[in-house]
TrEMBL record:
Annotated organism of origin: Pseudomonas syringae
Record-given protein name: GAF domain-containing protein
Cross-referenced InterPro entries: GAF-like_dom_sf
Superkingdom per UniProt: Bacteria
Gene3D superfamilies listed in its UniProt record: 3.30.450.40
Amino acid sequence: MWLMDVKKDDKWIEQKPILWLLTERFQEVSIWLLLTVALIIFATALMKQMADPWVVEKLQFILDEYQDRVFKNLNVPIDHNRVTLFKYKRSLFFRRHWLESGVSMWGLLKTRRFCGDYLVPYMRSGHMTLNTKTIFYVDSENSAKSQGVAGMAWSKRGVVILPDLPELTSTSRPRTKESYASVTKSSVRFLERYLAEGRTPSRAMAAMPVECNGKLWGVIVLDSLDPLGVTAQSVEHYTLTVALIGHLLERA
């Protein structure tokens, strides 16, 4: 903004009164022009982040129906059977990585990764709030490093089903916790923290990748406290539902 530094007695403008008048007026309103431009940029970025309300409503309806159909014959409360849509986010800083062993013994980095790509909660079925801290680290270059059932589905770009998982309580043997952590690609530390909060780890899980415009957008995760709550049949019957979700996300 070199015009802000122009003065009336500058040689190139002192003999041009009309040009100086225009420059002076610009200097007077420049701060407001800059603020207006900044607000426009901010509003545009915000609008891009906000999903179409119609799309959000339809997605919520589909997830709710999905929950009702997949888990309809189970003898557990409906809030123990969840359908959660996770969205892929690139380059997030200092996110907790409870699903893996500490990567550093120093302060913040002991439980957080400096930077990484994650699957983060986007929407959940039912009337439950999306109040979850669970995120899944994904590594597109090395699938072995991707975390959880969501990370497995993302890396293999296919369905992952984990039925009949062992029941875990705060008194479960270390070997049982290690077995559960190994199968679900989580960690004993994560499970112990989960149990300490009074929560019960899922007995059955499944995850399916969601594509949007031909690219991976995220993952849908089903989880239940019933060991047979998620089966191959229940997942296969609703692959079209997942495709419809991806189609709707093109408008989000």
